[in-house]
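Review form for a predicted model. The reviewer records the input and the model, then writes brief findings.
Reviewer: anonymous (R2)
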Amino acid sequence: MTTEKTWSQEAWDASLSIYRSILRLPFITELAAGTLDPDTFRRYIEQDNLYITQYSRVLAHIAARLDDIDDMDTFLKFAGDGVEMEKALHSMYVADGTTEMSPACLFYTSFLKSQSMEDVAVETAAVLPCFWIYLAVGKHILSIADLDGNPFADWIKAYSDPAFDASTAKAIAICDKLAAKASDDVRARMTDAYLKAARMEWLFWETAYTPRNWEV
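Model under review:
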């Protein structure tokens, strides 16, 4: 007997090549080894801090659109308490960071905000890579990292926190619930949004290592 895949399983399988490309990025391998240039890491954290500010607003917008009260509460918590945890980590590495988004950061956040006019299932799918791929990459780094003397050890060890797993599992479950009720067209648009956001995860890591600033 064959078991039909959930939407999330299909989306993850479709994004595997993107995920594996992220794992091969110099930023990831050097971060795990502790050899990453501290200025490169600071640049990443500064941009991630700007990203999270906008991301939390998208999460709150999704919460306002969800019909299920428990799902609404879950996304409100994602926008609040979960973000505070990551911002606390950022404060360990960044004092007075930049206030200007890089082109990659602006591209990613603008894409997420543009999904506000889509079906809520599509908007929710668009934010999932930031939960799922980010967590998977972090766990990969944790599994291969040399933490002894690694200047980024505190940031890396954060991925052992069960709260990251729990939040990601809830986000996946909500996406699957929305996909199960969606039309084939909406489900396809969910996957398209997920894959676009997955590629932007790659771009975000890659441009932290090789900056692409505004040329004019």
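Findings: The chain has a mean pLDDT of 91.
Further findings: Residues 78 and 167 are 7 Å apart (CA to CA).
Recommendation: see findings above.
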